[in-house]
Amino acid sequence: MSKPARPPARVPGRLPWFATLPALVIGALFTLGPLVVIIAFSFMTRPAQGGGVVYTFTTDAYRTFLFTKSFNGDLVFNSAYLEVFWRSLVQASISTVICFVLAFPLALWIATRSPRAQNLLVLAVTIPFWTNLLVRTYAWILLLAKDGVINQTSKALGLGAHELLYTDLASQLGLIYTFLPFMVLPLYSSLSGFDFRLAEAGYDLGARKRTVLRRIILPMAKPGIISGSLLVFMPALGSYVQPVLLGGGKVLLIGNLIASQFGDSRNWPFGAALSVIILALLGLCLLAVGLWARRSGTKVSLSL
């Protein structure tokens, strides 16, 4: 009786587990490390003079999010910070919806081009990533300023000058511009593998364009829609640069609220608690999307 063949001791090309140890240590140090520090700071005490933390456990930072103390020392419900979160949620949601409306036709058009044209067009979409975000934001300041290109064009057309910079509109415009590629690329990734003969079959069977779009193309693009929405919504929720530089910081959002706690207010535990609350909200959002994807059998990934 012949002996069974023994499996090879090592698969060719595969490294032993300890070869990945440096990468795992560095990854844990630079990803989990800051999170652990922020979570720990959120349960510390604010020093009397502010700035830094006192290593004494307390939940005062989380209490401050919903309640404030009256002169009598009683806890009174305070909705101010909830309103900040609500404004940030609305702005992030509007950015996500507008990015989808703009990105879907663009991604669909790119997916229907020749392979060479697709490569060039995808390259064009990624060009904004080649430059620093601050440089691009300052370019928008030059465009939206009182003597900027838009106002000069408006004056030349007899429409007069308009107050564009340091408004909510400028902040929203900056968010849409910044995160639009994050919606285009996942949508293109879903649509590029789509067999457009299915759409032609729909037309042959008498379906209209709207029906083909709703019944055939959109369901196939669903993974890209979910991925793109998450990739736009999550960073837009805590954005700091656009609301401050383009919106002038006139409207308090989550990003500049957290920055102010670590800056002028010198309340590090409360700033850390706000960061943990955002993290928990986004974690619940991802969990809900993951459960929905598992039940519906939809493949969702957070990659461009």
UniProtKB/TrEMBL annotation:
<dbReference type="GO" id="GO:0005886">
    <property type="term" value="C:plasma membrane"/>
</dbReference>
<keyword id="KW-0813">Transport</keyword>
<protein>
    <submittedName>
        <fullName>Spermidine/putrescine transport system permease protein</fullName>
    </submittedName>
</protein>
<feature type="transmembrane region" description="Helical">
    <location>
        <begin position="212"/>
        <end position="234"/>
    </location>
</feature>
<keyword id="KW-0472">Membrane</keyword>
<feature type="domain" description="ABC transmembrane type-1">
    <location>
        <begin position="85"/>
        <end position="289"/>
    </location>
</feature>
<dbReference type="GO" id="GO:0055085">
    <property type="term" value="P:transmembrane transport"/>
</dbReference>
<feature type="transmembrane region" description="Helical">
    <location>
        <begin position="271"/>
        <end position="293"/>
    </location>
</feature>
<keyword id="KW-0812">Transmembrane</keyword>
<dbReference type="InterPro" id="IPR035906">
    <property type="entry name" value="MetI-like_sf"/>
</dbReference>
<feature type="transmembrane region" description="Helical">
    <location>
        <begin position="21"/>
        <end position="44"/>
    </location>
</feature>
<feature type="transmembrane region" description="Helical">
    <location>
        <begin position="169"/>
        <end position="191"/>
    </location>
</feature>
<keyword id="KW-1003">Cell membrane</keyword>
<dbReference type="InterPro" id="IPR000515">
    <property type="entry name" value="MetI-like"/>
</dbReference>
<keyword id="KW-1133">Transmembrane helix</keyword>
<dbReference type="Pfam" id="PF00528">
    <property type="entry name" value="BPD_transp_1"/>
</dbReference>
<comment type="similarity">
    <text>Belongs to the binding-protein-dependent transport system permease family. CysTW subfamily.</text>
</comment>
<feature type="transmembrane region" description="Helical">
    <location>
        <begin position="120"/>
        <end position="141"/>
    </location>
</feature>
<feature type="transmembrane region" description="Helical">
    <location>
        <begin position="84"/>
        <end position="108"/>
    </location>
</feature>
